[in-house]
Amino acid sequence: MTADATRAEVAIAACSDLFRGDGEILASPTGTIAAIGARLARLTHAPQLLLSDGEATLYADTPAIDEPFRVPEGSLPYRALFDLMARGQRHVVMGAAQLDRYGNQNLSAIGDRDRPTRQLLGARAASTNTLNHTTSYWIARHSTRVFVESVDVVTGLGRARAEALGAAGRFHDVRRIVTNLAVLDLSGPGGTMAVASIHPGVSASDVQSATGFDLDIPAGIPTTRIPTDEELHLIRTLLDPRARREKEVPSS
């Protein structure tokens, strides 16, 4: 293992690991780090992973993050995306303006829903994602502004809300939340947020102080793995040779 991996590269490896065991499904990552992670997964442990341009085409090649796909593999018109979602054949990595202790996500508005202080993207397909197929989150800036006691508007559903729906929530699978500080999941009491690993150079108190609610932090929490030499070579020379990753998660 290489010890000089940057925080961004550790986060890329953590995002790559989100897709372990997924098989032939569509990866839909949001954010530079998450997108590099999905491409790294396809070049290493998940060769069957499907990648698209986000519009209408699946691609066979795996170019650098700031270069276009060039080798078409198949068509994926927008209408077909909903078929994949309904069949659970997709793993989306979303962002979030807010996430609460139960994994509920807000992409819509800050403040009162009817008179918000800030209007955001809107609900989009967040509820459909969280109820039909695997969902993870990538948060580039772990802070108390994002990790809040209660989200202002629920767009993506956490575990407790999904379970309250009965059979309608049976496919709910919020796998993990990767941030610039740690990897989290919903394994805490009552489906609440817990720390799965902490990135090298970060302490448990760093993660807790950047979170607006009490995290479940098990004893002996592991350190997030460092990328292998092969992974670092792929990240640095093929997937992100112009180091866009360091702009999303600076080393200092």
Describe this structure in words.
The chain is of the alpha/beta class and 252 residues long. The chain has one domain (7-248): Glutaconate Coenzyme A-transferase. The protein is built from eight helices and 13 strands. The strands form four sheets. Strands 1-5-10-11-12-13 form a six-stranded mixed sheet, sandwiched between helices. The protein has a three-stranded antiparallel sheet with strand order 2-3-4, with no helix packed on it. It is globular, with a radius of gyration of 18 Å. The two termini are 22 Å apart.
Distinctive features:
252 residues, alpha/beta, Glutaconate Coenzyme A-transferase, 8 helices, 22% strand, NagB/RpiA_transferase-like, CoA_trans_fam_I, CoA-transferase
Write the layout of secondary structure elements.
Elements: H1 7-17, E1 26-29, H2 32-43, E2 51-52, E3 57-59, E4 72-75, H3 78-86, E5 90-94, E6 98-99, E7 105-106, E8 109-111, E9 116-119, H4 126-132, E10 134-139, H5 159-164, E11 173-179, E12 182-188, E13 192-198, H6 204-209, H7 229-239, H8 245-248
Parallel strand pairs: 1-5, 5-10, 10-11
Antiparallel strand pairs: 2-3, 3-4, 6-7, 8-9, 11-12, 12-13
Helix pairs in contact: 1-2, 2-7
